[in-house]
Amino acid sequence: MFRLDKIDISLLAQLAKNGRLSKSELARRVGLGPTACWDRMQRLEKAGVITGYRAEFSLRAIGPCVTIFVMVELGEHKAQNFDRFEREIARHEEVTGCWAVGGGYDYLMQIVTRDIDSYQALIDTVLEQRAGVSRYFSYIVTKAVKDAPPPFDVLSKI
Predict the structure, then answer these.
(1) What is the residue-averaged pLDDT of the chain?
(2) What would the pLDDT profile of 33-68 be if each residue is shown by its tens digit?
(3) Model-level pTM?
(4) CATH code, domain with 50
(5) Residues 51 and 95 in one domain
(6) In terms of residue numbers, what domain contains 36?
(7) Distance in angstroms (rounded) separating the CA atoms of residues 103 and 93
(8) CA triplet 78, 68, 102: central angle to 5 degrees?
(9) Residues 94 and 36 in one domain
(10) Looking at beta carbons, which pairs linking 53-62 to residues 24 or more positions away fall under 8 Å?
(11) Which of 62, 107, 120, 127 has its CA 20 to 30 A from that of 156?
(12) DSSP for the chain?
């Protein structure tokens, strides 16, 4: 595990809230000079702590879309079955998140697509590819209630 200090945590929290801050503004907010701030960012990137930068936007402003969470259970629990499923899921852009989970199901997937018909076509494709899905449960998002960056101040106390 990479060791973070309070300034690293502050820098990550600022970037999570607003990744478009200028380097000089970011440095000011975390109490460093621009060069020292830039050096820390590069160190965090090289260590794999900062893995990328991206914009957030409203999908609904772009056009019609639906977000669906899907709980997936595989028929068999062997390494090759998990590998096959994960390779199949990685092929589909509409799958914007997929997590292996403990408990009653094997995976939680987040799918963003144009409409329910395109979602069903995706599921049909996954099933046709014999990815090992035994059963799945779909949950359609009707409203986003909260979507926040990680709580760096809480995580830093671990």
Answers:
(1) 91
(2) 999 999 999 999 999 999 988 888 888 888 889 999
(3) 0.79
(4) 1.10.10.10
(5) no
(6) 6-55
(7) 26
(8) 35
(9) no
(10) 53/15, 53/19, 54/19, 55/19, 59/112
(11) 107
(12) -----HHHHHHHHHHHH-TT--HHHHHHHHT--HHHHHHHHHHHHHTTSS--------HHHHS--EEEEEEEEES--SHHHHHHHHHHHHT-TTEEEEEE-SSS-SEEEEEEESSHHHHHHHHHHHHHTT--EEEEEEEE-----------HHHHTT-
The structure tokens listed for 100 are 């292996």
The answer for residues whose C-beta is within 8 angstroms of residue 131's C-beta and 6 or more apart is 84, 85, 88, 89
- Same domain, yes or no, for 127 and 63? yes
Please give the Cα distance from 133 to 66 (Å, whole number).
22
